[in-house]
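Quick one:
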Amino acid sequence: MVTTEPMGMSMDDKTTASLWSRMAWLVVIYTASVGVLFLVAMALRMLMSAGGMRVN
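Output:
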């Protein structure tokens, strides 16, 4: 009998591993998008400060 599952790993284990992998990617992509948004906001803030638009 030939099986396609790795030894010692059931279908439920694969599903759980896949879920954790997807959740990890979600966290990575979310963190990266927030970081990029922060960088863009800081760049705009620097440009506006350089142009004389400051909040006192």
